[in-house]
Amino acid sequence: MDFMAMLREERRKAGLVAAAGSSKVSDRAVEVTAASKSKEERAAADPKPTETVPIDFPPFKHTVLAGATNAVLARDGLEAFRVHAASGLRDVWYIPNFCTVEEHDDMLEQTYSKAASWKDIRSRRLQCYREPEMPPWLDTLASSLVQAGIFSPAQRPNHALLNEYEPGQGILGHTDGPVYHSLVACISLGSPATFRFTERLLTDEIGVREARELATLLLQPRSLVVFAADAYREALHSVPALLEEVVSADVANIEAAQASVGDRIPRTTRVSITMRTEVVAPSPK
Ligand SMILES: O=C(O)CCC(=O)C(=O)O
Ligand SMILES: [Fe+2]
């Protein structure tokens, strides 16, 4: 498929992704709901919580992620990791080495374990989990994000979305929407990739003028990117569909990502884990 056709396809699919991201029940919950329909009907008068099915992931070897920068994070808070974008875009943080190599490999092993349930879309593959059906390893990640002070205990992430991108795949500019609190943390596994913020145009500006680029980041494996507030609400974020990254001078986190202008980095498979907090807890059906 040529690049323009791929973009058209991605645009068509973006609606489906948004729908998948905002649906109130996971695939597993749907299966459980369908299988126990008559039981549910009987239980209509009996407001017992719906039974959940344990997800049989292999044991996760870590109780908390212990990457080298976490000590700095615990001592100084997120401020030390703020991305200073020339556009003035605030509320984006880049944390290199958020997990160790061993933790990274363990998370990839969990991602590809037999218990994982993938949803295929044309432009990439997804796994989507939400409490109370979060696999133990993603629960550990949620705890680590609270321990690191990124999420407050009251807004512990209750939703995990895994995206797998093959070389040449990406995600078009989008916002994550009001379904979640306006704070996202995304850990990268496997390939490095560019992550870009662009201006969110008003309806009457679309097609009239080009959206401004607000910040380009290079996300290295084992890093965590966090964004919130205006970067969440007023900017679109995307991962360009590339076969190779060419690092330019406007990469806002070039030092923290330990890259140099002109570096060419071929894309391999990348898995991202996006952790968010749904505003309203899913109500048992
Ligand atoms: O893969 C990424 O880094 C971003 C994923 C993303 O934006 C999303 O799932 O909403
Ligand atoms: Fe997103």
TrEMBL record:
UniProt KW keywords: Dioxygenase, Iron, Metal-binding, Nucleus, Oxidoreductase
Name the SUPFAM superfamilies on file. Answer: Clavaminate synthase-like
- One Pfam family cited in the UniProt record for this chain: 2OG-FeII_Oxy_2
Q: What is its main location?
A: nucleus
Localization terms from the record: Nucleus
Q: Where is the composition biased (Basic and acidic residues)?
A: 37-49
| Residue ranges annotated for the Fe2OG dioxygenase domain, each copy included | 156-279
Task: List, alphabetically, the InterPro entries matched.
Answer: AlkB-like, AlkB-like_sf, ALKBH6, Oxoglu/Fe-dep_dioxygenase_dom
Annotated signal sequence range: none
User: What is a single cellular component term in the Gene Ontology annotation?
Assistant: nucleus
- Gene Ontology terms for molecular function: dioxygenase activity; metal ion binding
- According to the record, the residues making up region (Disordered) are 31-53
Which species expresses this protein natively?
Hondaea fermentalgiana
Lineage: superkingdom: Eukaryota
Please verify whether the record's keywords include DNA-binding: no
* Family indicated by similarity: Belongs to the alkB family.
Looking up Gene3D superfamilies in the UniProt record yields: Alpha-ketoglutarate-dependent dioxygenase AlkB-like
ATP-binding as a keyword of this entry, yes or no, is: no
What's the protein called, per UniProt? Alpha-ketoglutarate-dependent dioxygenase alkB-like 6
